[in-house]
């Protein structure tokens, strides 16, 4: 009898969170994103609560991208991020939220 060997399974790549501040769309889930992206997107959503609706991942996000747009203006545009995401971790989310509020 031949033994079957378990081949290692490939892990699916998790998409990055993409946040878009908008006054007309409802929010959706960022459940497929990495915690680094998800927590920062949640901070923006919390910071803009009551001021604007925040849509997270309205369309399929690019891998390694964190983008915040208000209308057609990009407030934050971090693309091509590689692990461990130093640019994203260095981002001061309080300043980003204030930037978003000033652009609304």
UniProtKB/TrEMBL annotation:
Region feature Disordered, mapped onto this chain: 1-33
Bias-annotated ranges (Basic residues): 1-13
Compositionally biased spans, kind Low complexity: 14-31
Protein name according to UniProt: Selenoprotein H
This protein's GO CC annotations: Golgi apparatus
InterPro entries tied to this protein: SelWTH-like (IPR052674)
């Amino acid at each position: 009898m031949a033994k079957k060997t378990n081949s290692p399974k490939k892990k699916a790549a998790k998409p990055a969170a993409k946040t878009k501040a908008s006054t007309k769309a409802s929010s959706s889930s960022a459940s497929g994103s990495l915690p680094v992206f998800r927590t920062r997107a949640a901070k923006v959503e919390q910071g803009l609560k009551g001021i604007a609706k925040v849509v997270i991942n309205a369309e399929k996000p690019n891998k390694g991208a964190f983008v915040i747009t208000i209308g057609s203006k990009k407030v934050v545009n971090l693309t091509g991020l590689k692990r461990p995401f130093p640019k994203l971790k260095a981002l001061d989310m309080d300043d980003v939220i204030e930037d978003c509020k000033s652009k609304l």
